[in-house]
C-alpha cells in the first residue's frame, strides 16, 4: 500500500501521524491549554505553510507567515543556530514589529 503525505501514517512507536490537519489541531489544542494568552502565531514560509496558515486561522488565531529568506537574514547574527533559537528569534520579530513583510494569504494558496 502506497502512503501519501496527507494520509495517516503509523510511526515506529505505534502512534498514528494524522498528517498536516491533525498537526494543526494538536498545535491549537496545546496553545489554548497554555496559561497565557496567545496573541499571534508566526512562522517562516515552508512546506507546511499553507496548512499551518489556514488551519491556525480556522482555529481562531491571528497568523503571520514570513518569507523564509527575510527571517534567515534577520536571524543571521545569532551565534547558535538551532530550531529553538530560531523560534525565539521569530517571536522577537513578532514582538518588535520588525520590518519583515508577511506573505499575503493569496501567495499561500
Distance between the termini: 30 Å
The helicity comes to 40-55%
Rg on CA atoms, Å: 15 Å
Estimate the mean pLDDT confidence. 77
- List unreliable stretches of 5+ residues: 1-10
Please tag this protein with its features:
11% strand, mainly alpha, 47% helix, two-stranded antiparallel sheet, 5 helices
Describe the structure.
The protein is mainly alpha-helical and 109 residues long. The protein has helices at residues 19-33, 49-58, 68-75, 83-96, 105-108, and strands at 9-10, 16-17, 41-44, 63-66. The strands form two sheets. It has a two-stranded antiparallel sheet with strand order 1-2. Strands 3-4 form a two-stranded parallel sheet. A hairpin with a 5-residue loop joins strand 1 (9-10) and strand 2.
Layout: helices, strands, pairs:
Blueprint: E1 9-10, E2 16-17, H1 19-33, E3 41-44, H2 49-58, E4 63-66, H3 68-75, H4 83-96, H5 105-108
Helix pairs in contact: 1-2
How would you sum up this structure in a few lines?
The protein has 5 helices and 4 strands. By secondary structure, it is mainly alpha-helical. A hairpin with a 5-residue loop joins strand 1 and strand 2.
Amino acid at each position: 500500500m502506497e502512503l501519501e503525505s496527507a494520509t495517516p501514517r503509523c510511526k515506529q512507536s505505534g502512534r498514528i501521524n494524522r498528517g498536516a490537519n491533525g498537526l494543526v489541531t494538536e498545535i491549537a489544542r496545546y496553545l489554548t491549554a497554555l496559561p497565557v494568552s496567545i496573541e499571534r502565531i508566526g512562522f517562516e514560509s515552508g512546506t507546511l505553510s499553507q496548512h499551518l496558515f489556514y488551519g491556525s486561522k480556522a482555529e481562531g488565531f491571528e497568523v503571520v507567515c514570513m518569507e523564509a529568506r527575510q527571517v534567515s537574514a534577520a536571524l543571521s547574527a545569532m551565534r547558535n543556530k538551532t530550531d529553538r533559537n530560531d523560534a525565539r528569534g521569530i517571536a522577537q520579530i513578532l514582538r518588535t514589529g520588525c520590518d519583515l513583510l508577511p506573505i499575503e494569504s493569496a501567495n499561500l494558496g
